[in-house]
């Protein structure tokens, strides 16, 4: 995604630190893949979520491509925004076959019962960035203490660091390699740009928009996530069902926010099963 990993963020389109800009980027990528599939009938495109949070697309070849959109963390918010802004298809052609949303609540901030969608408290909201004060603290950390913040991110996203268990088969050497791996990825990003994106992301309230989703949906959550409580992630599935779509499944993993890293075999198995169901 723009501003993540090795992707740039400002030379061509200034600003860009908005979830809606990322959703528009996604739309351009999907249209490119769709055009490419039409030009090359034997082409197939499969892209899954890597170690960085983000949105991905999985599709098949044969000239007619279908997408199962996978969003992890803020990537889920990008998908929800894409659906709200552009609908569930690119051009009314039914090419979006399903969605997978991974460990993201539909609202990060806490909200009181002031006509703003009902109570949304610590049982639902992000554990560490949930109001003006905590947002400012997070932004200050990203900008002024990046090295420390990269390591703190690892500590809140890996389940065996958040809630250690006696049966965790992770030794000191593996834990050190994990931390170095993720710190190196985070260090590629511009902390100031990400801090501005965070301010936009944490304010978005996607709850009502979820009720308009009509395609099969898989929601995944990490029981030991240091980012979101299960109840907050579960609201995603509940809202979709409230809108009348019962083709929703929720799976809980025994890992943290990066469940695709801690339980890759199960994650990949469930993802491929769901993609096959949506695209057969």
From TrEMBL:
Transmembrane segments: none
SUPFAM superfamilies: alpha/beta-Hydrolases
Gene3D superfamilies on file: alpha/beta hydrolase (3.40.50.1820)
Domain of life per record: Eukaryota
Keyword terms, alphabetized: Hydrolase
GO molecular function, one term: hydrolase activity
InterPro entries on file: AB_hydrolase_1, AB_hydrolase_fold, AB_hydrolase_sf
GO terms for cellular component: membrane
AB hydrolase-1 domain mapped to chain residues: 2-269
Keyword Coiled coil (UniProt): no
Protein name: AB hydrolase-1 domain-containing protein
């Amino acid at each position: 995604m723009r501003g993540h990993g090795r992707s740039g963020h400002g030379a061509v389109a200034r600003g860009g630190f908005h979830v809606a800009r990322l959703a528009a980027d996604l739309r351009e990528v999907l249209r490119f893949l769709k055009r490419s599939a039409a030009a090359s009938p034997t082409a197939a495109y499969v892209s899954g979520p890597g170690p960085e949070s983000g949105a991905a697309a999985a599709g098949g070849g044969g000239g007619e491509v279908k997408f199962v959109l996978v969003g992890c963390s803020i990537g889920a918010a990008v998908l929800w925004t894409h659906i709200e802004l552009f609908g569930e298809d690119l051009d009314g052609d039914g090419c979006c076959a399903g969605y997978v949303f991974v460990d993201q609540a539909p609202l990060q901030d806490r909200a009181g019962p002031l006509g703003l969608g009902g109570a949304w408290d610590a049982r639902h909201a992000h554990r560490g960035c949930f109001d003006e004060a905590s947002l400012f603290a997070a932004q200050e950390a990203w900008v002024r203490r990046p090295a420390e913040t990269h390591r703190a991110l690892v500590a809140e996203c890996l389940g065996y660091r958040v809630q250690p268990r006696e049966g965790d088969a992770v030794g000191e050497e593996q834990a050190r390699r994990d931390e170095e791996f993720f710190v190196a990825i985070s260090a590629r990003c511009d902390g100031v740009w990400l801090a501005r994106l965070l301010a936009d992301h944490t304010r978005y309230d996607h709850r009502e928009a979820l009720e308009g989703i009509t395609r099969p949906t898989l929601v995944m959550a990490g029981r030991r996530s240091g980012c979101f409580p299960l109840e907050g992630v579960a609201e995603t599935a509940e809202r979709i069902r409230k809108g009348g779509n019962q083709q929703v499944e929720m799976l809980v993993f025994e890992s943290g926010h990066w469940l695709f890293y801690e339980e890759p075999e199960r994650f990949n198995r469930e993802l491929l099963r769901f993609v096959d169901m949506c695209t057969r």
